[in-house]
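$ run holo --ligand "adenosine-5'-triphosphate" --emit tokens
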Amino acid sequence: MRPSFSWLKKKNSVEDVFGEVKPILRSALDGHNVCVLAYGQTGTGKTFTMDGTNEQPGLAPRAIKELFNEASTDHTHSVTFTMSMLEIYMGNLKDLLSARQSLKSYETSAKCNLNIQVDSKGSVEIEGLTEVEVPDFTKARWWYNKGRRGRSTSWTNVNETSSRSHCLTRITIFRRGDAVGSKTEVSKLWMIDLGGSERLLKTGAIGQTMDEGRAINLSLSALGDVIAALRRKKGHVPYRNSKLTQILKDSLGTKSKVLMLVHISPRDVDVGETICSLSFTKRARSIESNRGLTAELQKLREKKISELEEEMQETQENCKKITARLQEVECQLNENKKLFWITNENKHLEDIEKKAILPLDNLKETDATLKSSDKHVKVSKSSGFVPRFMTSTVASRQRQTMSEKELSAKTQSIRSVAKNLTHFSTSQQSLSLSDTRSRVLLRKSYTKPLRAAANCGTPETPKRDIKDNSLQKKNVNDTSSPRKKMVTSSDPNARAKLCHHRRRMSSLT
Ligand SMILES: Nc1ncnc2c1ncn2[C@@H]1O[C@H](COP(=O)(O)OP(=O)(O)OP(=O)(O)O)[C@@H](O)[C@H]1O
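-- output --
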């Protein structure tokens, strides 16, 4: 079950890895806050890399030793160190160097749930956390081993001694110049063994072990969010989303230096987790630091960033206002559209009403137009100025005669329909109907055939209309027959209204 680490031993011993860590320790001694993180899938050797063994010490003891070595070579400053160790277990802070740290239960331990404070300068401090002075490497190593023993571990499918928490070791460096009146510079070196990111199904974690795994995954994703915000140079960095990021607030920002060691598994079955780990660290790597910038340039850069942020906020507010105004205008437009349609509908109905009352006038106009076009054709023909290619052939003359015949048939049919309508409008006026809607319906049913006759291009349709209208004409003229035969409509509503009027009429006569 356990992955093989023989390849790691050969190619990357802890000593090789430490070679990469060394330069950043110098920065810590120079006054920068430094953070060394061991990140990766569970069981890939984070704890081993950080702690090591007695024979082969890990990065943390090596780093502490290196700090003492460097400090001893600095003859212009006096450097002292203090050390603290804590564990973030299920969102709680546990002081690993406290005298009572051996208590396993988090409820009974007084040194649990320590408060995180940020001072006016933005420096993070953990209230009540044990801070021991370490005069030399031997003492420091002793404290470190003590702290390690207090960590919470559990058995999982992947790791027999899986760390169920994040372990943070802090070395605070006090550096004071030998000159009289010189100030003490304080910087921090964090060495962090992060809990392993894990797929709960794979680790087979249940109960409390599963909750621990979930808590670790949550805080790792909070760390990912902070990294993403720093990378995008967002105004707001979500440090407060987890205890881990709250504690590291002053050591993960732009003024600090971060080194992340990624641990991956060599097994094929872990390729998914390996890709996740690598893409996480790729994002972390793309955070731009202020390295190489002078203090003046840094100030300018920060000023510019805050200006741009303000501008962005202003633009966003303007954008909101414009969107609201746009919505208002859209509402107004819809109302206007509705009004327009209502008005137009009424006008349309009025037009229909007018056309139905005066169909003969329109007909006369149509007739006159037809006659004038006839005249025009005759004039053009008699003038004799038609070019040769425009003179009609026998076939075209035949077509023209046929279309003239069709046109005259149409005119005849329109005239007969109009006559019927005149009859109808006269009788309708005499009816003195009170319901205007039924009047409109009646007119509609009569103007339909008229329009159909005028629009239809086929000669059959007018014929049918003529037939219908002649029948209606007959009914109108036939005084002996009852009036109900006079009007027919396909609309059942209109029929009902007509019956009503017919009853009224019969009561009158
Ligand atoms: N380079 C190595 N050489 C020899 N053994 C190793 C090496 N790295 C890890 N191991 C062994 O593999 C096992 C798992 O390693 P370790 O506990 O350090 O993993 P981890 O990533 O810290 O896991 P978790 O996240 O679950 O705490 C341990 O028994 C450890 O001794």
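-- notes --
The pocket of adenosine-5'-triphosphate is lined by residues 5, 8-9, 40, 42-48, 159, 161-163, 195-196, 263 (CB under 6 Å).
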